[in-house]
Amino acid sequence: xxxxxxxxxxxxxxxxxxxxxxxxxxQAGCVQRExxxxxxxxxxxxxxxxxxxxxxxTCSCIRxxxxxTGIHPQQIAAVSTTCMREGIVLYDRAGNEIWACANVDARSxxxxxxxxxxxxxxxKEIYLQSGQTYALGALPRLLWVKDKMPEIYEKTDAVxxxxxxxxxxxxxxxxIEPSNGSTTGIFDLKSRSWDASIARxxxxxxxxxxxxxxxxxxxxxxxxxGEADTGLKKGTPVVAGGGDCQLGAIGxxxxxxxxxxxxxxxxxxxxxxxADGATDPGCRxxxxxxxxxxxxxxxxxxxxPGLVMRWFRDGFCQFEKEQSKITGEDPYDxxxxxxxxxxxxxxxxxxTFSDVMNFIHWKHAAPSFINFELxxxxxNRYTFYRAILExxxxxxxxxxxxxxxxxGNLPSEIIFAGGASKSPLWSQILADVLGMPVKVPVVxxxxxxxxxxxxxxxxxxxxxxxxxxxxxxxxxxxFQPDLRNHEIYSELYHAWRSVxxxxxxxxxxxxxxxxxxxxxx
Length: 521
Fold this sequence. Notes:
- It contains 18 helices and 20 strands.
- The protein is an alpha+beta fold.
- It has 2 domains: 5-252, Nucleotidyltransferase, domain 5 (2-Layer Sandwich); 302-441 and 482-508, 2-Layer Sandwich (Nucleotidyltransferase, domain 5).
- Helix 2 (109-118) packs across helix 4, helix 11 crosses helix 12 and helix 16 (447-458) crosses helix 17 (465-472).
């Protein structure tokens, strides 16, 4: 029998890729193309999504991976899609795209202010039902289109996300799924479907919401046009995928209630699975539908840890960068080797970058390093570097405590994936701070694997999503906590929270500049 393969198409913030997997989870090939989202000079903060050019890039990835692997389109059992969340696409009645923005779009500050002035209690009301605030959701962006581009708004027949945009392009069929759809803020979490009354409360239309189909469901088949564009075989089943973090959770085996995962990249996400769609009474933490039917996720976001690391490397570690050219080692590996010699707690030094999430009033302090001495033997660049690693782990602890306060539950272990999990030092610091085992999977960039698992589940290769996980997810190693270091970090955590609050007050007084502030604040 001819071997079968599963394809994932992943529309990320900075690139699109097509990835082919064997049904045992082994990657057979990947082709990736970078893309960018250009600002409309008329609208500061805007990030337009070029659906014509970006579809061409997507097609080149699909054709490219088929060519590179030599896999025949007939061998592909199913395709599924995933993407950056929060980006939206508007369609006219003929199904043509008429407006789209990427997830990083920040043009709607004025509309957030308008919504707050209209009803100061509405954001909390919407959060308790949808799990979302104005900070990341679609409501302010749709209001922006209504106010600034009324001709587009009047022509709009449907709103969608980028993973279902890919499906529409492949099949001609539009179908929202709950994991990404719920990030719009226009979903009722418990029913896992649109709630048009939320749109009406914001002065928006209630007739632009397509059908919702659960993740892992076969939506349609590749159409004749899809075949001509991509080289995939007409009739190939296309399965509803989901948002990148939710599919990443599937790709590392976090599919059941009370499991938790941390994804460490440019931004870090702490994902905790629950068995119901209840929200946080304090509106402090995001709640989404998981891509596993009947499961939801509390999600706490850390802003820019990976970007902070890149800044520190490029700004202060030129020696390591030069050494890497000679030795072939990653500069981060060279930095980690020296930072591992610094004792836990960095002699009491700490830093303030991202704060523990407060979804309803989200603001960060100015980036700062605090409590260091003029002693170069103790406080050198490796101490500062390690402090960044420790700061991010302390932030995860804060997010874990936040979710525990909202749900009453803590996980027994953490799954750690993403680029940051490639660092054994960071993984060990995370285990030491949390005081629990940290498991690192072999496949650390797990989003595409999660999409492949859903594709296989949709066409019956895996009887359940959990069975797909058992057949595909493998573990690299588990980091056990050092209990002495855990005691040090437990004391440091309380000091860090107090220091951060004081630093945030300096921002509130206008004396320092926030690293990031949510729209409308």
